[in-house]
Design a protein that fits this description.
Blueprint (H helix, E strand, L loop, with lengths): L2 H10 L4 H10 L4 H13 L7 E6 L16 H10 L4 E3 L5 E3 L2 E6 L5 E6 L13 H9 L11 H4 L2 E8 L2 E6 L6 H4 L26 E7 L3 E6 L13 E6 L3 H9 L5 E3 L6 H5 L4 E6 L4 E5 L10 H9 L3 H7 L5 E3 L23 H10 L5 E7 L7 H13 L3 E7 L5 H4 L9 E3 L5 H8 L14 H12 L3 H18 L2 E7 L1 E6 L2 E2 L9 H5 L1 H4 L1 E2 L1
Parallel strand pairs: 1-10, 1-11, 15-16
Antiparallel strand pairs: 2-3, 4-5, 5-7, 6-7, 8-9, 9-10, 11-19, 12-19, 13-17, 13-18, 14-18, 20-21
Helix pairs in contact: 1-2, 1-3, 2-3, 10-12, 16-17
């Protein structure tokens, strides 16, 4: 037996710590090294039980259990805890079967067949079948639906149950990335009731039942003893609270009120790092911060004005002072360098007040005055970012007024409504999903209301293109269009940063496509 095999035996519980150390010593490992190896292996082994208390930045009094309305991290985490999807994002970034046991496509990627797992039970005892899948997806597709996932589902020409455990999707055009669609947090599967779902149901197939829910305040989850996934849902109870104020959130962690917080204040994160018993976790991914300009508003309908605003911001300064180095400058398109089809050859835009003046002049102006609406509910440091932007913009003859909005209701009252505001995206695993969710003309979350015919034509063509070289070129062109014509000012990409006490444990490899293990930490993490 090798050391690696000994470690795996300890992790799986086949041997105890004493047996591991004895075996390691027999292989010539020193006692101190064997002890450290045993501790590392034990820490990597999930424990069942315990309570996890979480302090979340986001959450609103307008939150609803209706999956069509999900719009913040609190609800995304809630959805993944209580419900399962057809597919899930694996730690390596791929789309893996979840409620689906397997899936396959025709050679043209136009027809996809998903085979469901047998014997999956909802928390009310009902057995999952194809009808549950069909009505759960249909909920987002009706004419009256306001769901943000609706545009992505519009590619489905027809869907039907081939048998009680097989669902077939016929697409309008081929889509090689189609399984990724079903990883979306809107698409957790609910039980069918009289040919549709109850959108307010708490009944799911997930590892937890929702015991309490107070919108914008709190949620409590209790573990299901009959959960179908082996090696998941370790915690007995999870309590999530909304603590929007960064200082209050960090204080709650330091005093033990909560065990885990998302988005610690990067200005004071050094205090957490010095605190015994607390650890800071970072992950690279697709997170990016945006300042969307509504392109159909009177202020920003001229592309030259939009370009002036993009050249008037000092991206390097924001990364250094707002992100404290936990990120890199953005280039006014949403595709991260770690994603497939990233356009490496696209020149990085930088701060240039003279160019900003040049584009203002092309717009027929010598000066420009506008307001940006912001709140730290958008992202930690959003207000500071806008104040820094206001200073750099002044050198470009741009008078930028910073309007601080209330945290509560920011996403319902400011985002998508004010001509210029702050926002963020957790990103998506593929360019097609990212562009379709936030940049397509009919996307519910197209915060800039941008409608570029060339871009939208390319979006459909790239989705159906199976030649990888051609697809790469198309996505590069789309990134260029976003950068030079779009209304999204994207000054920086950030790392996902969270903080927790040392008893909170996670797998050695987690998903970096979204914060907190793609917001599946409730199912995947545990406490020591």
């Amino acid at each position: 037996m090798s050391i690696k095999q000994l470690e795996e035996s300890l992790k799986s519980g086949l041997i105890d710590r004493r047996t591991f150390i004895g075996g390691a010593l027999a292989m010539g490992v020193t006692l101190s090294s064997a002890s450290m190896m045993a501790s590392a292996a034990t820490n990597a082994t999930p424990n069942s039980g315990g309570l996890l208390k979480v302090g979340f930045t986001q959450g609103s009094s307008s939150d609803s259990l209706d999956p069509a309305t999900y719009s913040n991290d609190f609800m995304f985490a809630l959805g993944y805890a209580v419900f399962n999807n057809l597919t899930e994002i694996a730690p390596n970034g791929s789309a893996q079967p979840e409620l689906a046991e397997e899936y396959e496509a025709t050679p043209d990627a136009k027809t996809w067949t998903f085979k469901l797992r047998k014997g999956i039970l909802f928390s009310n005892g009902k057995t999952l079948d194809a009808t549950d899948v069909l009505v759960s997806i249909s909920h987002h597709m009706g004419e009256s639906s306001k769901s943000a996932i609706k545009p992505l589902l519009s590619q489905i020409e027809k869907m039907y149950a081939k048998d009680p455990l097989t669902v077939v999707f016929e697409l309008k055009v081929g889509n090689a990335d189609f399984p990724f669609v079903f990883t979306d947090y809107h698409l957790g599967i609910r039980p069918a009731v009289d040919g549709k779902i109850d959108p307010m149901t708490k009944v799911g197939t997930g590892g937890y039942q929702l015991a309490e829910f107070e919108p914008g305040v709190r949620a409590v989850f209790k573990r299901r003893k009959d959960y179908w996934k082996q090696g998941r849902a370790h915690l007995n109870t999870v309590e999530m609270s909304v603590i929007a104020d960064p200082a209050a959130r960090m204080s709650a962690l330091m005093t033990g009120e909560v065990d885990l917080i998302d988005r610690p204040d990067l200005k004071t994160i050094h205090l957490l790092k010095r605190r015994p018993g607390i650890k800071v976790h970072t992950a690279n991914g697709t997170l990016h911060y945006t300042m969307p300009m509504i392109t159909q508003s009177e202020q920003f309908k001229d592309v030259n004005v939009r370009l002036a605003m993009k050249y008037a911001i000092d991206r390097e300064e924001l990364v250094a002072k707002v992100l404290k180095g936990y990120g890199v400058p953005g280039n006014d398109h949403p595709i991260a360098s770690s994603m497939p089809y990233f356009a490496k050859g696209l020149e990085q835009r930088s701060y240039d007040p003279d160019k900003a003046k040049f584009y203002l002049k092309k717009a027929g102006m010598s000066k420009f005055k506008t307001s940006i609406h912001t709140s730290d509910a958008a992202f930690s440091g959003a207000v500071d970012a806008c104040l820094l932007y206001s200073e750099s913009a002044r050198k470009a003859n741009i008078d930028l007024k910073v309007v601080r909005e209330p945290n509560d209701g920011y996403w319902s009252n400011v985002w998508l409504k004010k001509p210029f505001c702050t926002s963020y995206w957790g990103g998506r695993p593929t360019p097609d999903l990212m562009f379709s969710a936030g940049y397509a003309a009919d996307a519910a979350w197209n915060a800039t209301h941008w409608k570029n015919p060339e871009f939208n034509k390319l979006l459909l063509s790239a989705r159906a293109e199976l030649d990888q070289a051609k697809r790469t070129e198309m996505y590069a062109d789309m990134q260029s269009l976003c950068r030079d014509d779009g209304g999204a000012l994207i000054p920086m990409f950030g790392q996902y940063v969270s903080a927790m006490n040392e008893r909170v444990k996670m797998p050695s490899q987690i998903s970096e496509m979204w914060d907190l293990d793609c917001q599946r930490f409730i199912e995947r993490w545990w406490v020591a």
